[in-house]
Design a protein that fits this description.
This is Type III iodothyronine deiodinase. It holds the Pfam family T4_deiodinase. Keywords: Signal. It comes from Rhodopirellula maiorica SM1. GO terms for molecular function: calcium ion binding; thyroxine 5'-deiodinase activity. By secondary structure, the chain is α/β, with parallel strands linked by helices. It folds into two domains: 195 residues, Glutaredoxin, CATH 3.40.30; 54 residues, Orthogonal Bundle (Recoverin, domain 1). The strands form four sheets. The protein has a six-stranded mixed β-sheet with strand order 10-7-6-1-11-12. A two-stranded antiparallel sheet has the order 2-3. It has a two-stranded antiparallel ribbon with strand order 4-5. A hairpin with a 5-residue loop joins strand 8 and strand 9. Helix 2 packs across helix 4. The chain is elongated, with a radius of gyration of 21 Å. The chain starts with 5 loop residues before the first strand and ends with a helix. 38% of the residues are buried.
Length: 278
Amino acid sequence: MRQRLFVFLTIGFVLLPCSAEAQRPRSSDQAQTMFRRMDRDRNGVIDKREAPAKLKAMFGDWDQDSDGKLTRSEFESNFSKRRVRGAASKPGEYVAPAAKQERQPEALQAGDRAPDFTLPRVGGEGTVKLSELYRDKPVVLVFGSISCSPFRQRVQQVEQLYQQHKDNANFLMVYIREAHPDSKIQVKTAAGEEELQTFVQTNNLALRREHAATCERTLSLSFPTVMDGVDNRVNAAYAGWPIRLVVIDTNGRILDPGAPGPQGFTPDKVATWLKTLR
């Protein structure tokens, strides 16, 4: 059977709780129930003594008037901003609403020619051109941003695939605009220390490069990273936001356009394609 070579384009953007499902706010009734449980002395406010550990870690952010107490209004307002699936899983983290305006209309179908691009490297000088990557072996392009929790989780599977298949496929991450700008995330600094950082939207390449480098470092990604341009042309061409996997063959044709993430971001499917190359 003739062996086929493919280019895997992983477009990981920033959105889910990047999806509508994960963005769906908890009900007001649920917030009120939790507030009543925490307000043990029934005085209509929650102080730090009553707050559970996770709430204590975020207390300063939730206490909008800094009076050392959370009113019902303060609690419900901040509660509604948190995702149902608890993407803000570490103390002090905060998940901002998804930048849904970044989503692009579906444009590519199987058999279409993959839009070519040349993008600057994050960790060094020079650029990377897509059409030069799929000449001799598959390419897995990972498009994403650090503010998308499902991306942070699932890209670890892509890293595993890279370690297993890097002799048979090229891997490249493309960093795009943030899925959840203004989110607060615990990251690893250049000095190797952990700290909470707020990730605003990347409207210039300098900031995008900084976010991309932090993403690489925090998630321990070893494959190269490039950045989408300020015109966000690559995201628009592939409708990659929030995250997506696109398979491209060595003729530069779309083999599998994938589906919108986060549900459509399926490293297991990529693994199946890569196994055919052995």
